[in-house]
Amino acid sequence: MSRRARLAQVSRRRQRHPMSEVSQVSNNAVSLPELKKDAGTGTGQSLTLRVERDLCYECAHEVVAAVEYLLARSPSEIVVEIGNVSTVDSSGLRALVAAGDLCRKAGVGFRLDKMPEVVARIVHISGLGGLLGVAEPDAAQAAQRGGIRLGPTTWRTWEHVAASDPALIAVLRDKVTAAAEQAGARGDTLCDIKIAVGEALSNAYRHGSPTKGSSKIVVRCMTCAAAVVVEVEDEGEPFEPDDTPEPDPGKLRDHGMGIYLMRQAMDVVEFASNCPGNRVRIVKWLRDQE
Q1: Whether 133 and 11 share a structural domain
Q2: How far apart are CA 26 and CA 182, in angstroms?
Q3: Which residue range(s) make up the domain with 196?
Q4: For residue 65, which phi and psi values (nearest 5 degrees)?
Q5: Predicted confidence (pLDDT) per residue in 79-98, tens digit
Q6: 111-121 in b/e burial notation, b at 16+ Cβ within 10 A?
Q7: How confident is the model at residue 56, as a pLDDT?
Q8: What is the C-alpha to C-alpha distance for residues 97 and 95, in angstroms, rounded to an integer?
Q9: Cβ atoms of residues 289 and 187 within 8 Å
Q10: Which ranges of 60-112 would DSSP assign to H, the alpha helix?
Q11: Residue 166 pLDDT class (50, 70, 90 cuts)
Q12: Do 74 and 103 belong to one domain?
């Protein structure tokens, strides 16, 4: 469907704020302000795009469409308000970078507002903070990698087999996040687990589901006081993850960012094929948490 057709389908509402107007991305649709031909062009104003749901694979493109719409009103600045976003995956990250690039090319200011912790974390580990106007934290705080001696311990495990439905990505991601939190994960560690699991599930749906809606995705979660281990299996064709280059900030492609984010976020990332499809195992040690 063309962008013009998508915009024609969305409902339109005007919300008045002093010196600004607000668009919303909500419930899989973009709600844009009414645009009268004779008034309210937005010229010279600061316009706000308020995102009211997670920025993930199935809806991230709508943010770019909304920014394009607002740019047509010749604003001085576009502010993307993301305070109600609970997570962003690599598709959402690409959409934010693309939106910022559109604004820069148009000579319009662009900034993110009310950034929640998990979004700040994915921006940091992606290395794209400069493109989004977000200051990078002190490099001395970078997480250390390596092994840990577990010794005798008790593991809690659960497994879920689901049809490849994009709506289930958030459900399964949140179940793993809740299990990790129960095991003791917090702060950046919990954010990293949430980010990596979302990427693993998104990849399983996008690249490992030959028949969308009927191909199976298996999620296995194992937790103890020292670690969180998650396995995601799909029915996709074998691939070589090491052949996937690290993403170039200037040329963000439609794939490759997910594997990079998983490797940045987790302590161990292992891939296997013929399981019967592909399997990724990701591990986060629960130690020295900020």
Answers
A1: yes
A2: 30
A3: 156-285
A4: -60, -40
A5: 999 998 988 898 899 899 99
A6: bbeebeebbbb
A7: 85
A8: 5
A9: yes
A10: 61-71, 90-105
A11: confident
A12: yes
Residue 127 and residue 179 share a domain: no
Strand 46-51 to strand 20-26: parallel, antiparallel, or no bridges (unpaired)? parallel
pTM: 0.74
Domain assignment present for 92: yes
Strand boundaries in the chain, DSSP class E: 16-17, 20-26, 29-31, 46-51, 77-81, 109-113, 156-163, 216-223, 227-233, 268-272, 279-285
Bond from prior residue into 137 cis (ω within 30 degrees of 0): no
Sign, CA dihedral 279-280-286-290, equals negative
Cα separations in angstroms, 87 against 55, 83, 192, 268: 7, 10, 11, 22
Domain stop point among 140, 173, 190: 140
160 bridge partner residues: 219
Going by pLDDT thresholds of 50, 70 and 90, the confidence category of residue 142 is very low
What does the DSSP 8-state code read for residue 164?
S
Tokens matching residue 48: 């706000």
* CA nearest neighbour of 265 among 206, 197, 216: 197
pLDDT given for residue 184 in this prediction? 95
Same domain, yes or no, for 100 and 19? yes
What gap in Å lies between CA 217 and CA 91, rounded to an integer?
Answer: 20
Residues for the chain: how many in total? 290
Tally of structural domains, the chain: 2
Output the six-digit token pair for 170: 């958030």
